[in-house]
Amino acid sequence: xxTNLILLLFSLVFTVTPRAAEDAVIAAVRAAxxxxxxxxxxxxxxxxxxxxxxELHYAHSSGKVDTKGSQIAGITTGPNKYERFEYRERTFxxxxxxxxxxxxxxxxxxxxxxxxxxxxxxxxxxxxWRQEAGRWRFxxxxxxRNPALADAKK
Length: 154
Description:
Blueprint: H1 2-42, H2 45-51, E1 52-59, E2 65-66, H3 68-77, E3 80-96, E4 99-112, E5 118-132, E6 135-145, H4 149-152
Parallel strand pairs: 1-6
Antiparallel strand pairs: 1-2, 3-4, 4-5, 5-6
């Protein structure tokens, strides 16, 4: 009886611990993404620089590709202000030690700084987060626009 109890406790430790570790990683990456989004809406170059990997590869839905420097410049001095990110889906998938994929669907609400005109990007995306020197950094982004509802019915 005592042996069975010890075996049961031993098996619980080895089945629960990996799940708890994975949950902690996902929580840390979710918090890092929340900070990236807040830094984007604030157009805060220092916070964006801290969030982004030096090797950032940011492929926009338009096909334009930015590096860390050009992405930060686009957010801080570009024509649009990012007002809100409305995640419809945001799923985190540990892909290996120190790497987490983030995929889903987001509505990005923007406003042109000159005209005041509102904009909306309806995107599906795949992003990569990598742990660098003990911190989760945004390594890559690839997105595509969803067709407008009227276009989808054609």
